[in-house]
């Protein structure tokens, strides 16, 4: 899915992001932008800094230097819980679920992008707004038949779909997806791609880290390539992937 990039103000801006670990430079000035309604891909060889970038954006790691902006607000180094309330959510590479809670309860409990806490009745009352919205999303991602099952019993692919539903229940400004198809049965990969694509068509904005280049090309409107902790190339997906610098970074060509 590739469209011409618009000149609208970005939802997310990362400027000169740096992260050092005891003298080791993990990020050395990463810059990126994600605009309303886009799916932006973030790729690079192992050790390029993709996960560290996500961790710094989400407050899982404090940045050594640089800035992260949500709209016009500087949200650098805010706690993850505060960022969720601001409108940034993340689905991790290894799906994070509450294994003893049902699929439905897992989605409801992620309703954190709101000023008031989730009420206990949201778990038990089928008529509550939160419960109804959770049911809609579970049905949308194709796991309604598992709604009352413990989340710990799901396959990796099903947990990824559950996480996708959970990340958007609060209508976030942007969702960070970390390897959405990694470790997934091939039969579910197209389901995940179609789900992300349709959610994007309905207005959800995404920044995605993904190793599967077919998935990257299918989903991304714009692509950033990192190498050695810094920007290497950016542009339309196929153009970026064909760049000699990218081929050299991946294959030594």
TrEMBL record:
One of its GO terms (molecular function) is ATP binding. Transmembrane segments: none annotated. PROSITE patterns: ABC_TRANSPORTER_2. InterPro entries: AAA+_ATPase (IPR003593), ABC_AA/LPS_Transport (IPR051120), ABC_transporter-like_ATP-bd (IPR003439), P-loop_NTPase (IPR027417). Residues 12-253 form the ABC transporter domain. SUPFAM superfamilies: P-loop containing nucleoside triphosphate hydrolases. Pfam families: ABC_tran. Gene3D superfamilies: P-loop containing nucleotide triphosphate hydrolases. Keywords: ATP-binding, Nucleotide-binding, Transport. It comes from the Archaea. This is ABC transporter ATP-binding protein.
């Amino acid at each position: 899915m590739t469209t011409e990039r618009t000149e609208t103000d970005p939802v997310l801006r990362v400027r000169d992001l740096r992260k050092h670990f005891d003298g080791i430079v993990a990020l050395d000035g990463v810059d990126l932008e994600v605009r309303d309604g886009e799916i932006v891909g973030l790729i690079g060889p192992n050790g390029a800094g993709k996960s560290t970038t996500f961790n710094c954006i989400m407050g899982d790691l404090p940045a050594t230097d640089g800035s992260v902006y949500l709209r016009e607000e500087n949200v650098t180094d805010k706690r993850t819980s505060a960022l969720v309330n601001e409108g940034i959510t993340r689905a991790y590479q290894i799906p994070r679920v509450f294994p003893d809670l049902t699929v439905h309860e897992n989605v409801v409990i992620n309703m954190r992008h709101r000023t008031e806490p989730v009420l206990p009745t949201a778990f038990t009352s089928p008529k509550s707004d939160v419960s109804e919205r959770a049911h809609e999303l579970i049905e949308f991602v194709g796991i309604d038949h598992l709604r009352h099952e413990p989340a710990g019993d799901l396959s990796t692919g099903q947990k990824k779909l559950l996480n996708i539903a959970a990340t958007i229940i609060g209508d976030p400004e942007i969702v960070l997806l970390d390897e959405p198809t990694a470790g997934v049965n091939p039969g579910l990969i197209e389901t995940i791609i179609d789900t992300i694509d349709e959610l994007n068509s309905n207005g959800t904005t995404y920044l995605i880290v993904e190793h599967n280049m077919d998935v990257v090309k299918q989903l991304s409107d714009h692509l950033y390539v990192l190498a050695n902790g810094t920007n290497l190339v950016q542009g339309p997906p196929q153009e970026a992937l064909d760049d000699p610098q990218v081929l050299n970074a991946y294959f030594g060509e």
